[in-house]
């Protein structure tokens, strides 16, 4: 199957560069609304059979134009919400708080899943909830599923679960608002990334904190 991981449209706290991860969260800016409205045309070549969104309002608002265009219901699932910032919630993302948040997310992707976000969830918990929704989508019978989620969560999960996306690649490649990662595969056989925000993905050697580059040595 094809799995389209779509980051939500721009929010006011993206503009203010805040670690905003709690539900229900803010809506979209005017730009975010335009980004969401452009998605049906951008994805017109995809035979999408199901649309999922997280419990944060911004993903549901971003998914709504596509779902309406396709005549589909938006299936809301908590498991694909943003990585909880815990004690770092609403702190500026361009400070040490933001660096701790993203370093923790990518430590999980690298295998340190027992590490816990300060005052928040562990990597094992975050991956398990995301895995569960991906498994549901894969079992839906749809050949292509659009899953509307969040920048840090998408980058973390793909670095941990997708064969040709490693931590260096995901850390070095921010995912802009309404950026789309196209995957092919299944939970049983594994996943391969076909493109990352429109770019072809090769094996790897800014719009809010979840869209920043992580690590100075990544290519």
From TrEMBL:
PROSITE patterns named among the record's database cross-references: PG_MUTASE
Gene3D superfamilies tied to this protein: Phosphoglycerate mutase-like
InterPro entries, sorted: His_Pase_superF_clade-1, His_PPase_superfam, PG/BPGM_mutase_AS, PGM_Phosphatase
SMART domains documented for this protein: PGAM
Entries under PANTHER family matching the protein: BROAD-SPECIFICITY PHOSPHATASE YOR283W-RELATED, PE-PGRS FAMILY PROTEIN PE_PGRS11
Protein name: Histidine phosphatase family protein
Species the sequence originates in: Streptomyces coerulescens
């Amino acid at each position: 199957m094809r799995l389209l991981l779509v980051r939500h449209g721009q929010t006011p706290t993206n503009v203010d560069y805040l670690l905003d991860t709690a539900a229900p969260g803010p809506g979209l800016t005017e730009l975010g609304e335009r980004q969401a409205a452009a998605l049906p045309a951008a994805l017109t070549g995809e035979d999408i059979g199901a649309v999922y969104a997280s419990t944060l309002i911004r993903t549901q608002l971003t998914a709504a134009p596509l779902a309406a265009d396709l005549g589909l219901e938006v299936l809301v699932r908590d498991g694909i919400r943003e990585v909880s910032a815990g004690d770092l919630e609403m702190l500026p993302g361009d400070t040490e708080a933001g660096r701790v948040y993203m370093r923790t997310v990518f430590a999980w992707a690298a295998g340190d899943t027992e590490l816990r976000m300060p005052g928040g969830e562990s990597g094992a918990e975050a991956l398990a909830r995301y895995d569960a929704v991906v498994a549901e989508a894969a079992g839906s019978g749809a050949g292509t599923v659009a899953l509307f989620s969040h920048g840090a969560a998408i980058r973390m999960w793909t670095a941990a679960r997708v064969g040709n996306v490693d931590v260096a690649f995901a850390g070095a490649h921010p995912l802009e608002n309404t950026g789309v990662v196209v995957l092919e595969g299944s939970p049983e056989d594994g996943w391969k990334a076909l493109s990352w925000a429109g770019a072809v993905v090769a094996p790897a050697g800014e719009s809010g904190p979840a869209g920043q580059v992580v690590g100075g040595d990544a290519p």
